Amino acid sequence: MVQLKYMFMAENMFRFYRGTCHLFYEDLHHYGTVVPSPLTWICGDLHLENFGSYKGNNRLVYFDLNDFDEACLAPAAFELTRIVTSIFVAFASLKITEKEAAIMAKLFLSVYSDTLANGKAYYIEPQTANGIVHSFLSDVCERKEKQLLQRFTALKKEKRVLKIDNVHFYKITQKPLKKELLGFVQNWLNNNLKDYKVMDTAFRVSGTGSVGARRYVFLLENKKQTEKYILLEMKEAETSSLKPYLKILQPKWTTEAARVVAIEKRMQNVSAALLSTVVFDKRPFIIQEMQPAKDSIDFTLIKKRPKDIHQVISDMAMLTAAAQLRSSGRQGSDIADKLIAFGNNNKWQEAILKYSIQYKKQVEKDFKDYCIDYKKGLMQNKK
Predict the structure, then answer these.
(1) Contact assessment for residue 266 and residue 330, using Cβ atoms and an 8 Å cutoff
(2) What angle is formed at CA 104 by the lines to CA 101 and CA 105, rounded to 5 degrees?
(3) SS3 380
(4) How, if at all, do strands 72-75 and 153-156 pair?
(5) Of these four, 87, 193, 280, 353, which has the most CB atoms within 10 Å of its CB?
(6) Residues 186-198: tens digit of each pLDDT
(7) More confident residue, 356 or 52
(8) Contacts of 96 (CB under 8 A, 6+ apart)
(9) How much is the pTM?
(10) Three-state SS letters, 135-146
(11) Angle 87-93-95 from CA coordinates, rounded to 5°
């Protein structure tokens, strides 16, 4: 799976950027403070692909920040430099001009600042969404369960199982591990979701940065309702890539999974369905209902639709600020008043833009060097 991650990272510069969060913060650490900013809870790896739809624990669908593997307490500028740089990197990969990228980056910072200044933590659901995000969420809501079952499962000897496509799901070849996983999740279901039983499991691949981590998907069947299924995900939580570069005292979490879930719950308006933590094989894992598809905005489809891009960037900026406001004043994060003051003072925006434009050039160089080494076979498993 690590080899698969290396292959993904060689696809384009943006995918490389998504897989190298640790490099970004190492370089930011050596650079020093870009701008003074309030301490806030951040997702840590904020980029254009880490916003998307998910089903909340109230069974409604939301569009929000949706990846908290690197989450921690840090200056707000950390989050801003990461996401604004991602605009320049992603747009370059899409062959959109740097001038257009700069316009969208300025829009992001402007909407972010205005949302902070307003002091209101807004959220997006189908009823409140606009433009492309509204269409996106409406499509998610209208998905038929049968369509999802056809895509991700198959009937094998009159029993429904996960479809091993070697794209989303891979076969767990170690039979003892598979048996242990099925028993573990069934025990969890007996204590948390008694109407369901576990039918099958597979190794799951999604995203870029987390490819190679232990990540499993489970097919659950309702005991009382025929052909009623849920996909459950169990993903190992690892140490945040930011940890070596943080001088700020962090809370003492019981596990890395506890860190991820606690910060996710305080930053999102509504938590993902079934979100919780477990320990399997002495390793911390995050459990949640799996989103059946890669529910993030596909910029390749809208790159020639400036109105849609404008709306998406505005929504992402608003959600970033809202998440920080929502989690303010918690375990060391600055109170909302400091965030509001930061939003009202927009003099720092130019420094963020300048750093992001310059760092995009560093990403270009790193990606070029990476591709050379990848083609030489230096990333191959020598075993």
Answers:
(1) yes
(2) 85
(3) coil
(4) unpaired
(5) 87
(6) 999 999 999 999 9
(7) 356
(8) 303
(9) 0.93
(10) HHHHHHHHCCHH
(11) 100
Q: Which of 41, 85, 87 is nearest to 246 (CA)?
A: 41
pLDDT single digits (tens) 282-302:
999 999 998 654 467 778 777
In eight-state DSSP terms, residue 56 is B
- Inter-residue contact 23 to 61 (CB < 8 Å): no
Of the candidates 113, 120, 104, 50, the one whose C-alpha atom is nearest the C-alpha of residue 82 is 50
* Contact residues for 69 (Cβ-Cβ < 8 A; gap 6+): 44, 45, 209, 210, 237, 238, 240, 260
Domain boundaries, the chain: 2-141+298-375, 143-289
Structure tokens at 157: 């000897």
Q: How many CA atoms lie within 13 A of 320 on its CB side?
A: 32
β-pair type (283-289, 229-236): antiparallel
pLDDT in tens, 154-195: 888 888 999 999 988 999 999 999 999 999 999 999 999 999
Supply the DSSP symbol for 251. P
